[in-house]
Amino acid sequence: MFQFPAHLSFYSRKLMRYVFLTFIASISLHCAHSAAADPNIERRLPPPGINIPADQLSTLTTELQLLKADFASVKSHERDADAAVFIKAVDYALLHNEFYNAKDVQKAQRLLAAGKERVAELKEGRSPWARQAGLVVRGYRSRIDDSVQPYGLEIPANLDFRQRVPLVIWLHGRGDTATDMHFIDQRLTKHGQIPVGDAIVLHPFGRQCVGYKSAGEIDVWEAASDVLKNYQIDMNRIVLMGFSMGGAGAWHLGAHYADSLVAISPGAGFAETARYNNLAPDAYPPWYEQLLWGQYDVPDYVRNLLNVPVFAYSGELDKQIQAARVMEEAYRANGSELPHVIGPGMGHKYHPDSLKELLRKISTEIDTGLRTPKRVTFQTKTLRYNEMFWVQTRGLREHWRDARIDAEVLDKGLIQVTTKNITELRLTIPQDASIQSIEIDGKTISLRDVDSADAVVDLKYGDEWQLFDPRQKSDELKKRIGLHGPIDDAFMEPFMVVTPSGKSANSELQRWIDFEQQHFVDRWRALMRGELRIKRDIDVTEDDLLTYHLVAWGTPETNLFLRDFAKPDVGNPMHWTDETIHVGTQQFDAANHVPVFIYPRGERYLVVNSGLTFREGHDRTNSLQNPKLPDWAVLDIRQPPNEFTAGKVVAADFFDESWQVKDRVISPESRSETP
């Protein structure tokens, strides 16, 4: 049977497949129909580059293959990622045609030379770059997909590597063409906007251009973790800064992880979705997508920012001053004022004097250092973001609704707590506090019988708040930390794609599965800059089941991991036969519909028939790179996949907090959740 070469990009294979099927069409009208059914989705990120001369292409390809072969001998070295990032950068540039002017060939040559030098040094048991000052590029292997991801460092010239120093995390702006190769070249040749001083400056790659969301969010912390492993960093003096897309990242990462940061300084960017995109209510997307704005819309997390110093910056004439204005409103609504430095007469860049003022403010906070506050304000809409200093929520009454915990250590040996939309929480009592009781939502709970050495208090709401022991295992299925949805949540942790070993008797359904499965592979590589772990269902091991979320494609007929969904009354939220898909009280023709959903599988997720739910059409602005589907949906595949959706959404909803189908039917086109 004819097969396309594995090294060709998906888009090249699609073109070849079209040509091949068009030829066959002269013999078979059926094959002509198959070719026409394949959608053509244009890739936005990264955009296609220019054609480089054939001789240069040949030389780069040959040198790359030689370097790959040489690298194989050091691949198990603890610092192999520091060399592998150079190889991957050129490999992806060739694979996706990421050359945007003639001089980019020289960038590729410089990176190959740098990679070759590092491989040679690793062979000799040396890694001199690990104690190099100035501009340094390093890499790590991501837990999400085992991909190597680069990051840049600026190391002070006279750094004493034995002394703990502050870390400034700087988030770069949007760069549609700033792929691995271009990012690394810049980090080797250009200093950033922030003077190094006595601190190490970290430049995360952020998976290039996803607004520091999804795997890009995790990249920031994985890169920071690698820096903490390799350098002496003062954990109480970590600063987060960024500008433009990086400013947007500083807003939402700062709001989600404020308790890890001594200061936060977002510059320009965006802070939420609707107002930034000038959306009128009658142009809002479906109700569930509006709720999912709550993953990254910073006003929904503003109370977290009240715990640490935040210094916003905007150019006076920059339209993206809008983000800081929105956040000023959010601060005032919570009885506070946002420090906002405005560059006089400036557009979308720093005013030199304003930057000096910001750095003075940040320097003061670095000198003071991060301290555990006696009063904590915490706000969230999902258990993905569940902790602020010594306060942790472990259960919500309902996801994607405003949830709050305000807790304060009083001088009377009392912790006073008020909550909203919280069913379970944990307090890790500060070490210098002598606490005898907790007053929570008006009820006083004595701690006299609690082991004082534990210093951890767990509270759960039934008919009223009470102490409980979380070590007492329960078989109760519920949304909890690490298992709460939506579909896209699985792609922020280690996962494995599980392809079906069988083929569906429904040719149109099989064509959809084949296309969407491959679309996920190629989109992840191009957008998230990594390779997916992929196994057939029959090859998945017990260790895989314990280690990874599974992303299973197919039907109960074709994929072993979907077989149980064909069985009625086994506790699954869906019953899926050859004829019908049952979801709660709704039924759909299985010949023309596909369910996509996320559901617990032991301690891990099972995702069915879905990759990232934001697609190429949403890549035009990072503010739209948000989850687009809730916990489950049913797609009518008679509408072919396009740049916005994998099919027509005919039903969609969140599971309740017990992972059950909600007893309601809301039109997916509705802008309101009210039935």
Proportion of residues in helical segments: 25-40%
- The count of domains is 4
User: How many angstroms does the end-to-end distance come to?
Assistant: 52 Å
Strand order of the largest sheet: 20-19-21-26-25-27-28
Total count of strands: 28
Could you list the spans in which at least 5 consecutive residues all have pLDDT below 50?
A: 1-36
Class by alpha and beta content: alpha/beta
What portion of residues belong to β-strands? 15-25%
- Radius of gyration computed on alpha carbons: 26 Å
Helices, by number, come to 14
**Global shape:** globular
Give the integer mean of the pLDDT values.
93
Report on the biggest sheet: 7 strands, mixed
What oligomeric state do these chains adopt? single chain
Observed structural traits:
six-stranded mixed beta sheet, disordered N terminus, 675 residues, single chain, alpha/beta
Structure in words:
The strands form six sheets. Strands 20-19-21-26-25-27-28 form a seven-stranded mixed beta sheet. Helix 11 links the parallel strand 7 (312-315) and strand 8. The chain is globular, with a radius of gyration of 26 Å. The chain is built from 14 helices and 28 strands. It folds into four domains: 1-38, no CATH class; 43-231, no CATH class; 375-467; 487-653, no CATH class. It has 675 residues and is of the alpha/beta class.
